[in-house]
């Protein structure tokens, strides 16, 4: 593909962007871990409030950061030439790892609720979060069976690919919305007593609100990178797509 020289000058290089995004993802995980460690009493596996603290850490790490990394695999220039299979495997393994962390995150919150007699699945956050994880599981299974298993014909792959890409971005948006609503809900529950009310904006509230903004920024940047035409894999090289117009034309 040939770019106009001016377009080349204006085009943001992908690698520095990737380094920045990786740093931002690390900061998100560090922030959510520090919040749970410093203000919420750390981590445990005994069903206590410290067990609950695994929930936000695992969800931010899995559903946002690892999932964002999985989504951007095909934007890496090395993936644009040569065999696509190793990158497909990397994409699916990163997504599966993200899903595994999300399931552990759900287990942590259900364990905490059940041990304390708290009802499950009553809040908007919980509905949004569970919908995200269920949609994610369908997305992974459909992607795995269509793109990694050899049975799917080329026309089916071509038909499903835009659907897969659309739901990939949708799940990321849902993940970000779930995280932000969860942070907000946790702050309202935790900062109810006396001098540290949420509306008085104690240090914990400032810190956790900032975490929410960082997660939002991460999600927006991933979606921006996915939408950027010059960073997309040139599809002319891909047998997945170049056979399809011919098939559809009946050649």
Give a brief rundown of this model:
The chain is mainly alpha-helical. It has helices at 5-10, 14-38, 49-52, 54-71, 85-115, 124-148, 154-190, 203-227, 239-249. Helix 2 (14-38) packs antiparallel against helix 4 and helix 5 runs antiparallel to helix 6 (124-148).
Structure report:
It is a multi-pass membrane protein. It is an enzyme of class 7 (translocase). Pfam families: Cytochrom_B561. Helix content is 73%, strand content 0%. Helix 2 packs antiparallel against helix 4, helix 4 packs antiparallel against helix 5 (85-115) and helix 7 runs antiparallel to helix 8 (203-227). The chain has one domain (14-229): Four Helix Bundle (Hemerythrin (Met), subunit A) (Up-down Bundle). The protein has 251 residues and is mainly α. Mean pLDDT is 90; it is low at 237-251. The protein has helices at 5-10, 14-38, 49-52, 54-71, 85-115, 124-148, 154-190, 203-227, 239-249. The longest helix is centred in the C-terminal third of the chain and has 37 residues, at 154-190. The chain is built from nine helices and no strands.
């Amino acid at each position: 593909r040939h770019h106009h020289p001016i377009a080349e000058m204006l085009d943001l290089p992908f690698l520095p962007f990737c380094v920045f995004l990786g740093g931002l993802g690390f900061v998100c995980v560090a922030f959510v871990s520090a919040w749970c460690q410093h203000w919420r009493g750390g981590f445990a596996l005994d069903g206590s409030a410290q067990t609950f603290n695994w929930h936000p850490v695992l969800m931010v790490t899995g559903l946002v950061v690892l999932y964002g990394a999985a989504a951007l695999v095909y934007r890496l220039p090395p993936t644009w030439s040569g065999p696509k299979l190793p990158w497909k495997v990397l994409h699916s393994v990163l997504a599966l790892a993200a899903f595994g962390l999300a399931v552990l995150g759900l287990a942590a919150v259900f364990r905490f609720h059940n041990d304390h007699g708290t009802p499950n699945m009553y809040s908007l956050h919980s509905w949004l979060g569970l919908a995200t994880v269920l949609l994610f599981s369908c997305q992974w299974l459909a992607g795995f069976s269509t793109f990694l298993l050899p049975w799917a014909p080329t026309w089916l792959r071509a038909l499903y690919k835009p659907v897969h890409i659309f739901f990939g971005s949708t799940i990321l948006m849902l993940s970000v919305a779930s995280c932000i609503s969860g942070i907000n809900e946790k702050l309202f529950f935790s900062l109810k007593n006396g001098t540290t009310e949420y509306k008085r904006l104690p240090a914990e509230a400032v810190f956790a609100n900032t975490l929410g903004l960082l997660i939002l920024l991460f999600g927006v940047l991933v979606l921006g990178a996915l939408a950027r035409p010059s960073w997309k894999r040139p599809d002319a090289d891909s047998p997945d797509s170049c056979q399809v117009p011919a098939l559809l034309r009946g050649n």
